[in-house]
Write a structure and sequence with these properties.
By secondary structure, the chain is of the alpha+beta class. Helices cover 18% and strands 20% of the residues. Strands 1-2-3 form a 3-stranded mixed β-sheet, with helices on one face. It starts with 97 loop residues before the first helix and ends in a 6-residue tail after the last strand.
């Protein structure tokens, strides 16, 4: 271990305070995403909103009211407040290319034990908020074909759902070939 790893200066002087295993987190103190120094008490979580049936013990605001709706209702056309700790919502659109969706499905299929290679390829079709995936595979000789195909279905559905953020309506697996493992005659 070097002197720097021990938290000492390169000349062997006394350890620097805070040196060693303290991680570096960029950002200004007090802003979201920063980590308080060790030993600093964490702020209390926000209190839950009172239910509309229970009387409110909140002191009245001194700010003038500008037709604000009663507690627990939203004004028409107003966006709902994001949950505590959620990232802020911004305007815009996010698109995932068909090639990306197909690559996610292909990589998920290749992760399954017993898959030797992709067959004719992968096709992803979108229908509203759901996707259907067609994948062709080659199974390694000696593996139970139905077990490998079922594992491909499950793996592709799981990873496509997680990474694409879409509902997976179906995963159709076509076993197109059986191959020996690489390196065997």
């Amino acid at each position: 271990m070097t002197e720097l790893d021990k938290g000492r200066a390169a000349d062997g002087a006394e350890p620097r305070p805070g040196a060693g295993s303290t991680p570096f987190f960029p950002g200004a103190p007090g802003l979201p995403g920063t980590v308080p120094p060790p030993g600093t008490p964490l702020p209390a979580p926000p209190a839950a909103a009172p239910s509309s049936a229970a009387p409110s013990s909140v002191a009245p605001s001194t700010a003038p009211s500008h037709n604000t709706p009663p507690h627990g209702t939203a004004s028409p056309g107003a966006a709902p407040a994001p949950p505590a700790g959620a990232p802020p919502q911004v305007e815009g659109r996010i698109t995932v290319g068909d090639e990306v969706a197909e690559k996610v499905a292909a990589l998920a299929a290749l992760e399954v034990g017993g898959v030797a290679a992709l067959g004719s390829g992968v096709r992803v079709r979108s229908a509203g908020d759901a996707v259907t995936v067609d994948v062709g595979i080659a199974v390694e000789y000696g593996h139970a074909i139905m077990d490998v195909a079922a594992a491909v279905q499950a793996g592709v559905a799981r990873m496509s759902g997680l990474m694409l953020g879409a509902r997976v309506a179906a995963v159709n697996v076509a076993v197109e070939d059986v191959r020996r493992q690489a390196g065997r005659a």
